[in-house]
Specification:
With 231 residues, the chain is an alpha/beta fold. It has six helices and 14 strands. A hairpin with a 3-residue loop joins β4 and β5. The chain is globular and about 50 Å long. It starts with a strand and ends with a strand.
Length: 231
């Protein structure tokens, strides 16, 4: 199976309207799959659900030192129906991101998830665990409408696993079989997301021949990766 695609446009060409997409990284410049995001912006799929740590922070993710690319551009263009995130808003009240503006206008939905719970829901999706209980969020808006139970004297809220149609990831290196090695913030959510998506697409700095990456630094085994594209 040839996993190497010639362009990001080719790698995202089949993303349909209504797709659920996990986007790796922590929200800063290094960890975002910027080229894949831009390609999806140009491809034009709509009514997307984005699962990511942030809602797309404006001013982060500079591509080639000039253009800012995060999934903020997908929200700005009206392609996103819903965001599942732990930090969806801008760090500065005076500089609202596109999500904040559209959310206040009732044009995009939000599912707010504590960061650790977000990671665990994604991990559960990849591991085939349908749901789990956690004390995080009990007594807050996060728990509204959710089932709770008491374990060992502590109330816990039921959280459901997250799965996606696609995962867009950024990695430092890959080999042709799809093994991935990450660098910096690209590793935060990406290894989990790779396991929880039907199609995992990795944007990488370097693609090597099979066997050229030290197994000790491989964080995502190639079995989880369907498509590779060099930046």
């Amino acid at each position: 199976m040839n996993k190497v695609f010639l362009s990001c446009a080719e790698a995202v060409a089949d993303v349909p309207d209504g797709a659920v997409i996990m986007i790796g990284g922590f929200g800063g410049a290094g960890g975002m799959p910027q080229c894949l995001i831009q390609a999806l912006r140009e491809q034009g799929a709509k009514n997307l659900t984005i699962i990511s740590n942030t809602g797309g922070l404006a001013g982060f993710g500079a591509l080639s030192g000039s253009v800012t690319i995060t999934h903020n551009v997908l929200i700005e263009s009206g392609q996103v129906r819903k965001v599942v995130a732990s930090f969806p808003v801008s760090a500065s009240p005076s500089r609202p991101n596109a999500f904040e503006v559209l959310y206040r206008q009732g044009k995009v939905e939000l599912e707010l998830v504590p960061q650790g719970t977000l990671a665990e829901r994604i991990r559960a999706g990849g591991a085939g665990i349908p749901a789990f209980y956690t004390p995080t969020g009990v007594g807050t808006a996060v728990a509204q409408g959710k089932e709770t139970r008491v374990f060992y004297g502590q109330e816990c809220v039921l959280e459901h696993a997250l799965k996606a149609d696609y995962a867009f990831l950024r990695a430092n290196r890959a080999d042709t079989t799809g093994n991935l090695a990450y660098k910096g913030t690209s590793r935060n959510f990406s290894p989990l997301m790779a396991t929880a998506a039907r199609v995992t697409v990795a944007e990488v700095d370097e693609i090597l021949e099979s066997g050229c990456i030290d197994p000790e630094v491989v964080a995502t085994p190639g079995i989880y990766v369907k498509r590779l594209v060099k930046r």
